[in-house]
Each structure stands twice: as structure tokens, then as C-alpha cells.
Design goal:
By secondary structure, the chain is mainly β. Helix content is about 0%, strand content about 60%. The protein contains no helices and 12 strands. The strands form 2 sheets. Strands 2, 4, 5, 6, 9, 10, 11 and 12 form an 8-stranded mixed beta sheet that branches. The relative contact order is 0.33.
Length: about 120
Amino acid sequence: QVQLVESGGGLVQPGGSLGLSCAASGSFTSIKVMGWYRQAPGKQRELVATVTSGGRTNYADSVKGRFTISSNKNTVYLQMNSLRPEDTAVYYCNAEAMRYGVSFTPAWGQGTQVTVSS
């Protein structure tokens, strides 16, 4: 199985920066994709950014140019700059891992709160 442990998050003023990280562990042999999703109160969970094992990235339009996703081995990072109040949400890490070619069910982290407010 796959376990994801997130760190980072917190309270930041509009225009500020914040970084998130998520470390994956477990019995997998490779990870296909890791990413970040977020869910604001009363809204559905939405994609923020993903990165494949080959380094291909994908971003939600709302964060392009402000957020940067990166990965190193089994850890994924999200650098968030120029934060806006509408970025306030619980941010969840996600990973699609495999063991010798067999995919696990996508795993989710416990979520970390990001609040952008003055």
C-alpha cells in the first residue's frame, strides 16, 4: 500500500508564499503520478497540479504562473506564490503508485489547511 504524509500549510497574507511537501512510503516499486488537489468549504475537490514520473506537469488554470509543482524520488512539493484569498482550502496530496507493474488504488494524504487572509 501507499502512505502519504503532508507537511507545510498554514496562514499567510495575500500576496505571500507558502510551500507544501508530501512524502510517499509503502510497498510500491514506482510512482506514476503525484499531485495536489484542494477543497474549499462548500466546494468539490479540484485539481491543483500534477507531475508524472517523467517530469511532465499539469496545472489548473487558476494557479498557472503562481504555483510550481516538483518532485524528488518519492516526495512531491508545491511552491505557492502570489497567494490569493481564493486559494484558501484544504490541500490534499495524491499518488498513483505501482508494484511491479500492478497499480494500487490512488492514495490520498490527510490534508493540510492553507488559509490566505490579512
